[in-house]
């Protein structure tokens, strides 16, 4: 698989009993887990195998949005109290690496990243459990 990354780990932590969505690359598959935030109990698991053309599409979208230029840390302004979600991403592909942590502040084009990953996985990673709108 030409377009398969060496590493992809995504964690979306939702406040207010939303739990944690995890998407981790293991061998050639993406493993999605939704865990309870209070007990760490696994509530849902989905295994996804992407084709080369899906990975190719993903990387082309990431290049379009300047994905590799994202900052390491996105925090809210000092005087702002935030109850928002936490987003942690670690990616290694070819000679490029990205590690970013977002809390209450996000890269301008995070929504394009999430839309793209949602599209190729048929999940809604920005929603607890990955189920989409209920």
List the topology elements.
Blueprint (H helix, E strand, L loop, with lengths): L6 E8 L4 E8 L2 E7 L6 E8 L2 H13 L8 E2 L11 E8 L2 E8 L6 H12 L13
Parallel strand pairs: 5-7
Antiparallel strand pairs: 1-2, 1-6, 2-3, 3-4, 6-7
Structural overview:
- The chain has 134 residues and is an alpha+beta fold.
- It has a single domain, classed as Mago nashi protein (2-Layer Sandwich), CATH 3.30.1560.
- The chain has helices spanning 52-64, 110-121, and strands at 7-14, 19-26, 29-35, 42-49, 73-74, 86-93, 96-103.
- A seven-stranded mixed β-sheet has the order 4-3-2-1-6-7-5, with no helix packed on it.
- α1 (52-64) runs antiparallel to α2.
- The longest helix has 13 residues, at 52-64.
- The protein is globular and about 45 Å long.
- The protein starts with 6 loop residues before the first strand and ends in a 13-residue tail after the last helix.
Could you write a compact summary of the structure shown?
The chain contains two helices and seven strands, in the order ββββαβββα. It is an alpha+beta fold and 134 residues long.
Main sheet properties? 7 strands, mixed
Q: Which CATH architecture would you pick?
A: 2-Layer Sandwich
Helix content estimate: 10-25%
Query: How confident is the prediction overall: mean pLDDT?
Result: 91
C-alpha Rg (nearest Å): 15 Å
Strand content: 35-45%
Given as residue ranges, the uncertain stretches (5+ residues, pLDDT < 50) are none
CATH names the topology as Mago nashi protein
Q: Report the top-level CATH class.
A: Alpha Beta
Overall 3D form: globular
The CATH homologous superfamily is termed Mago nashi
Q: Which structural class do you get from the secondary structure elements? A: alpha+beta
Total helical elements: 2
Cα-to-Cα separation, first versus last residue: 35 Å
| Order of helix and strand elements from N to C terminus | EEEEHEEEH
Record field, number of beta strands: 7
Spatial order of strands in the largest sheet: 4-3-2-1-6-7-5
How many structural units, i.e. domains?
1
């Amino acid at each position: 698989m030409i377009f398969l990354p060496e590493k992809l780990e995504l964690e979306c932590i939702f406040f207010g009993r939303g739990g944690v969505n995890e998407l981790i690359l293991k061998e050639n598959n993406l493993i999605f887990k939704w865990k309870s935030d209070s007990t760490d109990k696994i509530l849902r698991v989905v295994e996804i195998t992407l084709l080369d053309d899906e990975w190719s599409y993903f990387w082309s979208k990431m290049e379009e949005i300047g994905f590799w230029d994202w900052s390491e840390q996105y925090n809210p302004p000092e005087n702002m109290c935030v109850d928002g979600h936490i987003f942690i991403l670690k990616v290694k592909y070819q000679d490029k690496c990205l590690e970013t942590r977002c809390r209450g502040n996000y890269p301008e084009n995070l929504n394009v990243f999430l839309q793209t990953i949602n599209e190729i996985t048929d999940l809604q990673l920005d929603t607890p459990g990955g189920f989409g709108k209920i």
